[in-house]
Amino acid sequence: MVPMKKALSLLLLCLLLFGASGCGRAPSAPASPAKGQELPEGAQILENARVSYLGPEGTYTEEAARFFFRSAAAFLPESTVDEAIADVAEERADYAVIPQENTLGGAVTNYVDALIGQNDIYVVGEVILPISQTLMAIPGATLADIRTVCSHAQGIKQSETWRAEHLPDAATEEMGSTAAAASFVAQQQDKTLAAIAAPAAAELYGLTVLAENVQITDANKTRFYVLSKTPLAGTAHTQAVFVADCRASRLDDIIVEMHNAGLELVTIHDRPEGSALGSYRYIIEIVGSGGISAAQIEKLCSFEEVRFIGSFDPVEKGA
Fold first, then answer.
1. List of domains in the chain
2. Cα dihedral angle (295, 301, 302, 303), rounded to 10 degrees?
3. Residue 227 in contact with residue 93, Cβ under 8 Å?
4. Over the stretch 45-65, which tens digit does the pLDDT of each residue have?
5. Please, what's the b/e burial string for 127-141 (b: 16 or more CB within 10 A of its CB; e: otherwise)?
6. Are 118 and 231 in contact (CB under 8 A)?
7. Separation of alpha carbons 250 and 76, rounded Å
8. 8 A C-beta contact, residue 111 and residue 134
9. Side by side, which strands form the sheet with 171-174?
10. Cα–Cα distance measured from residue 290 to residue 299, given in angstroms and rounded to the nearest whole number
């Protein structure tokens, strides 16, 4: 028979996981900031910052970066998330902005892997951005001309239902970003090619919009992390992120302690740890009503497997 403590721990784990996936009480969504609103008090985000992001120009990541850093001195597009993070690690940029989870596509696992592979990079902000995927092609092309659709893996995933109905015979080609797909289509000048990208990419690359809102749902959103070499000062921020390197059997103890500390689960993702079967890196995001205290963080980090990687206050851009 399973000991009572273990049984209760497993029950609590199941309840927390169901709550995190939307079946239980979810944390309150952050309010959308009004135009010109400042970042949350105490954010300690540098003005005139150098901000690296997943480029090229015209990506949703650039939109998220410009929404968060209204007074940045320079926005630095990079070809990959690894390069954007390296800019911060090697002090060529003060911050990096990377996608981390989408309503339809789930966690962007290779980007999350790039983050947790670093020991000195912290999450200091989060932007929630509505995503309106747009099908575009060169001027003169029509929907009937399209034979290949290019986009980032997330754009391809998010549009699969629409494409099955309207472009059932079109192939797909994965690109490094949605904007890279738009740039490629513009360069090729081929009427049989189309890109799925942000609406702004059509004007930026001289393309014609063939269809708007080709994503599966109008509720489509992506969360972006803002990264820095220095964690935010203070611990009153509403959310925090940890990485737990452990076997699955250890996870219930960590989550029970999190619950005992008065913290609530927002999301949890598992990534292979790489050294043994059944051993994972769990990315745990939590929320604390009224802010997360230093004592709560210290209590969770008392587990030798747990590493703190940042606290922040999310901001959301209205549709």
1. 4-130+221-316 (3.40.190.10), 134-211 (3.40.190.10)
2. 150
3. no
4. 777 889 999 888 888 899 899
5. bbbbbebbbbbbeeb
6. no
7. 41
8. no
9. 171-174, 148-151, 193-197, 134-137, 208-211
10. 17
Summarize pLDDT for 274-297 with one digit per residue, the tens: 777 777 888 888 888 778 888 888
φ, ψ dihedrals at 307, nearest 5°? -125, 125
Backbone angles phi, psi at 183, to 5 degrees: -60, -40
**DSSP string for 60-92:** HHHHHHHHH-TT-SEEEEESSHHHHHHHHHTTS
Q: Cβ of 214: how many Cβ atoms within 10 Å?
A: 23
- Name the amino acid, one letter, at 130: P
* Helical H segments across the chain, by residue range: 4-20, 60-68, 81-89, 109-116, 153-158, 160-166, 178-188, 199-204, 248-260, 294-300
For residue 285 the two structure tokens come to 């995001």
- Both tokens of 264, joined, read 């609530």
Distance CA 178, CA 212 (A): 14
